[in-house]
Design a protein that fits this description.
It is a single chain. This protein is of the alpha/beta class. The chain has helices spanning 18-29, 41-55, 69-82, 107-134, 156-175, 194-199, 216-222, and strands spanning 9-13, 33-38, 60-63, 88-91, 139-143, 182-187, 232-234. It has a seven-stranded parallel sheet, with helices on both faces. Helix 2 (41-55) links the parallel strand 2 (33-38) and strand 3 (60-63). Helix 1 (18-29) packs parallel to helix 2, helix 3 (69-82) packs parallel to helix 4 and helix 4 (107-134) runs parallel beside helix 5. The radius of gyration is 17 Å and the shape is globular. The two termini are 18 Å apart.
């Protein structure tokens, strides 16, 4: 690897599997100090083992639920004390829920999906924006989906929450345009993940791209030289 992120500090949510895990490994290989945030401690420990094989340096592991919003605030404070800044934020964690007619969701199911896809990302912005501003070039990116812009039957709260996420990121980008922080949206396209298998159980598993194949855009948007802000990028395998 070229060491394009040497010395950068990067927090990635959903880092124990799928796209988040692939991005964490890519960032580590490019020289970043990885802060891996996910619910599953076992998955995080496996990720840490892989990162230590690549770099010889352990990751910082945060085994917590993103819907523990007070924990997010405490993470922000702890990162400020330890690192004094944050260079990169990747909001990769997401919740799909079931696929069904929109009137068939219970209020709890609807709220649970919004809690992860929208409210948790807002809390991350709220807590970590001050740290991104302390970087010489803070970079934030959030994973969305084509269904945010192409309403499809039965995708209900997932599609609506991703549309809300995209709008929120664009608003945030407008507000930080005068700062050294940039925020963008990534549509990963069809990727072989656990969520994808739930949504398309009969799909040929060889058809979607592997998560590792789409990580270049995450590096490009994390670079200090990146000037894009409030834009949508589609990953290319």
């Amino acid at each position: 690897m070229s060491g394009r992120l040497e010395g950068r500090i990067a927090l990635i949510t959903g880092a124990s599997r799928g796209i988040g895990r692939a991005v964490a490994l890519k960032y580590a290989a490019e020289g970043a100090q990885v802060i891996a945030f996910a619910r599953t401690l076992g998955g995080l420990e496996e990720l840490d083992d892989e990162i230590k094989k690549i770099t010889g340096t352990p990751a910082v592991l945060i085994a917590e639920s993103l819907t523990d919003y007070d924990k997010i605030d405490r993470v922000g404070a702890a990162l400020h004390e330890r690192f004094g800044k944050l260079d990169i934020l990747v909001g990769s964690a997401g919740a799909l829920g079931q696929l069904s007619p929109i009137g068939h969701y219970t209020p709890k199911m609807w709220n649970d999906i919004f809690d992860v896809n929208v409210h948790a990302n807002w809390r991350l912005i709220r807590s970590l924006d001050p740290l991104l501003r302390l970087s010489d070039a803070g970079r934030a990116m959030f994973v969305s989906s084509v269904v945010a812009r192409d309403p499809r039957m039965y995708w209900g709260p997932y599609a609506v929450s991703k549309a809300a996420l995209e709008h929120m990121v664009k608003l945030y980008a407008n507000e930080i345009g005068h700062t050294n922080v940039r925020a963008n949206i990534i549509d990963p396209g069809p990727v072989q993940t656990k969520m994808r298998k739930l949504a398309y159980p009969g799909e040929d598993p060889a058809k979607p791209a592997q998560p590792e194949a789409i990580t270049d855009i995450f590096v490009e948007l994390a670079l200090p030289s990146c000037t894009a802000n409030g834009e949508l990028f589609k990953a290319q395998p």
